[in-house]
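User: Please fill in residues for this 109-position structure.
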């Protein structure tokens, strides 16, 4: 078991990227959520938040599945301010599975 103080730098960086746009998210909660992610998800989310620092609050459809899942997790934790991405075509908030130029669309589109 990894103690919070000894979390890898990349985990701490990811937690910082999350709390930067979510002032409501406490550092220990961010650290716990990061620890629960798979290594692949941590890498993808870190890359996306580095490129799009507001991805958790913008509702932009470009968010990859791992970021969509993180937004759901944050919302389930009662974190205010998170905004699930809306379909690029129909604007509905649903799982966005298909990448198209400019973002992602839902299955119905
Ligand atoms: Zn749609």
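Assistant: Residues filled in for all 109 positions:
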């Amino acid at each position: 078991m990894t103690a919070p103080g000894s979390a890898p730098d990349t985990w701490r960086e990811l937690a910082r990227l999350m709390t930067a746009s979510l002032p409501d998210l406490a550092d220990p909660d961010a650290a716990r959520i990061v620890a629960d992610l798979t290594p692949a998800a941590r890498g993808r989310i870190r890359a996306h938040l580095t490129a799009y620092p507001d991805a958790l609050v913008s509702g932009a459809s470009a968010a990859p599945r791992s970021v969509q899942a993180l937004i759901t997790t944050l919302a389930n934790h009662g974190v205010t301010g998170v905004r699930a991405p809306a379909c690029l075509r129909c604007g509905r908030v649903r799982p966005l599975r298909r990448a198209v130029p400019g973002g992602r669309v839902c299955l119905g589109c």
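For context: The chain is about 50% helix and 10% strand.
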